[in-house]
Amino acid sequence: MRNPLVKGCGSLLLAALVCLVSQLASAELSVARGSASQAFQQSDPVPEWVYTLQQGDTLQSIGQTLLARNVDTRKLLEHNNLMSTGQLRSGDTLRIPINWLKRQPEPAKVVSVTGSVRKISGVDGRQHPLQSDTIIRVGDEILSGAGSATIALADGSEIRISPNSRLIFNRLTQYGKSGMVDTRLRLQKGEVHTRVRPIIIDGARFEIETPSAVAAVRGTVFTMQADSNGSAIQVAEGAVDFGAPGKTRRIPEGYGASLSTTGNQAVMIHKLPPAPTINPLPPVVTRLPAEVTWQAGNYQQYRLDIFDEDTGTWVQSHDLASDRFNISRLDNGRYELHLAAIDHRGISGIPGVESLEVNLQARKPTLTAPAEGEKLNDDMPEFRWQFNGNNEVARVEIARDDSFQQLVTTSEWAPDSRALPLRPLSPGEYYWRVVSEAGGNSIATSETRKLVMNGTLPPARIISVNYLDNQVRVFWEDINTASSYRLQLSEEPGFRNIIKQADIADTTAALRLIPGRRYYVRVKALSEGPLTGRWGPGRELYLD
């Protein structure tokens, strides 16, 4: 590429450098382009990065955006054999030593979490449940119990932490805006799966350390394990330098290696079992269970992992001793099936990968019992129905109204075709239905039926009385199974001589009384069904 920044370009070009306006957004774009497309000469003694200039770049803006504080921009001119009278043009290149670039912490981010996973803060040591979008900083630790997590690094590399693992983030550094990172992790125990973006420039770094080994990576897909007996690695793509610190060996694609905590610390290298051939699956699975089969070859054991295709979330894992497996439960969505053979040492080989799309549709259940309008005495009745779809779960919904705006209770979600309500039903009239679900997002609803719970309504108790002139306002408690209330007024406490009776829809009534006389009032709840109400206690009324 033409580079006009050579000796003898003239002092006018230096003036042009000073007047150009910094445009940081353009500089960021050029960094990414330069790091991806430029290479270094093998003879360069110091690792370098080649930056491609954009319109508006100046020596000053480049220094502010890319260089560490202690690096003078004049050193950059000298390093590129330039006089102070050069002119920078869009498309020209500058060679920048890696150790001159700015370095700043660049946190990682949690992409997805499945099951129980915790984060231990590197600042205060507190533990918190790990959630999607959580920021991971230097010093933080991830503890996966029965769960797993996928974490994205600043350069787009991904780490998937398997269950029962402990991973410590020792360094998360980015070189200015170059897109290059220095990532160093410690796998104290357990297993991690990594997909590391290619490192094409010396100085960028990705390392995973264990108590017994170190793995230095330049862009690869690999799996690494650590326990009290040692460390192991399996390389699916690229290559990894693996072994004791200072004694690593390059492990190529398709091979694995192990290092014991005892003995002479020699790296044992072996070829991995090849990827099994998974027999073709239907383009879309519309019912489960669905059988997955493969060509077994010479291996007796396999591991099948299922991941969400969009997020990389680990969904299921199965150790198998045959050449087939029935997938019985999956929500609707797209998945990746990773199937690996396991050799006699218990080492998983290169996984065969197959896509799977699940699209289950819920069907409207058929109600069985209770019958329409049936009167029941048991306050915890059993509801029954028939499924008309596959791989469905369902629950009963019980409400006061046929639009189910006044939901009273439900049953638990379950794959059964019968259920009990979560709480007893008080006497009254109800409506019930069954909602079925398939694939996590497909819903179907049955017809609606009415039922009546036998019994008597509870007594309505007067809760307050307000006097104003010759008027008295009476308030009583609300009975949620009542359609209205009946009020009686008497001049004696036995209510044998009723002087006033009224049916009232509300829970309050105003009465006009003759001063100086004693009255007694009581209320009972009414129902539109066959239920009977009970009178609440009488209350004395008196106006001076």
UniProtKB/TrEMBL annotation:
<dbReference type="InterPro" id="IPR003961">
    <property type="entry name" value="FN3_dom"/>
</dbReference>
<dbReference type="InterPro" id="IPR036779">
    <property type="entry name" value="LysM_dom_sf"/>
</dbReference>
<dbReference type="InterPro" id="IPR013783">
    <property type="entry name" value="Ig-like_fold"/>
</dbReference>
<feature type="domain" description="LysM">
    <location>
        <begin position="49"/>
        <end position="96"/>
    </location>
</feature>
<dbReference type="InterPro" id="IPR018392">
    <property type="entry name" value="LysM"/>
</dbReference>
<protein>
    <submittedName>
        <fullName>Peptidoglycan-binding protein LysM</fullName>
    </submittedName>
</protein>
<dbReference type="Pfam" id="PF04773">
    <property type="entry name" value="FecR"/>
</dbReference>
<dbReference type="Pfam" id="PF01476">
    <property type="entry name" value="LysM"/>
</dbReference>
<dbReference type="InterPro" id="IPR006860">
    <property type="entry name" value="FecR"/>
</dbReference>
<feature type="signal peptide">
    <location>
        <begin position="1"/>
        <end position="27"/>
    </location>
</feature>
<dbReference type="InterPro" id="IPR036116">
    <property type="entry name" value="FN3_sf"/>
</dbReference>
<keyword id="KW-0732">Signal</keyword>
